[in-house]
Design goal:
Elements: E1 9-10, E2 13-14, H1 30-33, H2 36-39, H3 54-83, H4 87-111, H5 116-120, H6 135-144, H7 159-170, H8 174-184, H9 191-194, H10 206-217, H11 223-254, H12 266-272, H13 279-287
Helix pairs in contact: 3-4, 3-6, 3-8, 4-11, 6-7, 10-13, 11-12
C-alpha cells in the first residue's frame, strides 16, 4: 500500500474510487432498474407552442400518482396485518403512509408557484382532464372509508381502473379491519359494525364511542390499541391537511372558476372537508373527562 494517500479531490473534482463500476454492459443499472427511459419520457405537454410551466403541472401530478400508488400498497398490507392480528406490523405500514402524506401535502407549495396568468396559458388545452378522475386517489378514499358507488361510473370506459376501484369498493376499509381486531381482543364492538356492508361509506355508530373511550381511559391495559387510535387520527388529520392545501392551491390559481372536469371547483373541494374516515375517534374526545 502506498504511504501517500491518494487525494480525494483535485482541482475541485472528486476522484473516482478504484472499485467503482464503469463498464455497465450487460449489468443491472440504476436507470434500468428504475425504468428511467420510460419514466422520464412520460411528460408530454399539449400546449402549442409548448408553455414552460406545463412541465411543472405534469410532473406535479405524476409524482402525486406515484406516491398514491405507494399509499395503496402500504394500506393494503396494513389491512392484511390487521386481519392476521399483527397490530404492530400494521402500524409500521400506517406510519409510512403518514410520512408519504406529509410529502404529498408539501408538494402543493411547488404547484402554488404557478400563477393564474401562467396557468391560463395552457389550461384550455387540458380539455376535460381533471384530478377528479384520479382512480388511485379514489381508491385511497375507499380504503380509508369514504366509499361512493357512483364514483365507479367515472371509470366505466377504462376496465383496468374500474377493476382497481371495484376491488377497493368491495374490500374492508382500514378502520373495518382495525375494529374487527378490537372485537377479537374482547371489547364490545357493535355487531352492526362487524356485519356491515363494507361497500357502503363508513358512518358513525354512537354505540362504538363507549368502546373507544374504554381504550383511551385505560391506556396501560390497551396500550397498542390506544397507540393505533392515535395513528389513525394522524392519518385522517394528514388527509384533511392535504385536502385543505389542495383547496387553497386551486383557489389561488383559478379562483372560483369551474373545474376542467365539470365540477364546481373550489366549492366542490370545500365540501370534501366535511367527510370523515374514523368519526368515533374524534367524537370520543368530547366524552373523555366529561362529568
Amino acid at each position: 500500500m502506498s504511504s501517500e494517500a491518494e487525494p480525494t479531490t483535485t482541482g475541485n473534482e472528486r476522484a473516482l474510487e478504484e472499485g467503482i463500476v464503469t463498464d455497465l454492459r450487460d449489468r443491472m443499472t440504476y436507470g434500468g432498474y428504475l425504468d428511467l427511459d420510460r419514466l422520464l419520457s412520460a411528460q408530454h405537454p399539449v400546449s402549442s407552442p409548448e408553455h414552460h410551466d406545463e412541465m411543472l403541472f405534469i410532473i406535479q401530478h405524476q409524482t402525486t400518482e406515484l406516491w398514491l400508488k405507494l399509499v395503496l400498497h402500504e394500506l393494503g398490507t396494513a389491512r392484511d396485518r390487521l386481519a392476521d392480528d399483527d397490530l404492530r406490523a400494521a402500524l409500521k405500514h400506517v406510519a409510512r403512509v403518514k410520512h408519504i402524506q406529509e410529502v404529498l401535502t408539501q408538494q402543493w407549495s411547488v404547484l402554488a408557484t404557478l400563477t393564474p396568468t401562467e396557468y391560463a396559458e395552457f389550461r384550455g388545452e387540458l380539455g376535460n382532464s381533471s384530478g377528479f378522475q384520479s382512480v388511485q386517489y379514489r381508491a385511497v378514499e375507499f380504503a380509508l372509508g369514504n366509499k361512493n358507488e357512483r364514483m365507479l361510473s367515472v371509470f366505466k370506459t377504462h376496465p383496468e381502473n374500474l377493476a382497481l376501484l371495484t376491488a377497493e369498493w368491495e374490500r374492508p376499509t382500514l378502520y373495518d379491519e382495525f375494529l374487527r381486531l378490537v372485537a377479537r381482543r374482547g371489547l364490545p364492538v357493535p355487531p352492526s359494525i362487524l356485519e356491515r356492508d363494507v361497500r357502503e361509506a363508513y358512518r358513525e355508530t354512537p354505540e362504538l364511542v363507549a368502546v373507544i373511550r374504554e381504550i383511551y381511559e385505560n391506556p396501560r391495559e390497551h396500550w397498542d390499541l390506544y397507540e393505533a387510535c392515535e395513528e389513525l387520527v394522524d392519518v385522517e388529520d394528514n388527509f384533511q391537511f392535504w385536502r385543505f392545501r389542495h383547496l387553497r392551491t386551486v383557489t389561488r390559481t383559478i379562483g372560483m372558476k369551474k373545474g376542467t372536469g365539470g365540477s364546481s371547483g373550489v366549492e366542490f373541494l370545500q365540501r370534501a372537508l366535511s367527510l370523515t374516515f374514523f368519526p368515533e375517534l374524534y367524537s370520543v374526545r368530547t366524552e373523555i373527562g366529561a362529568s
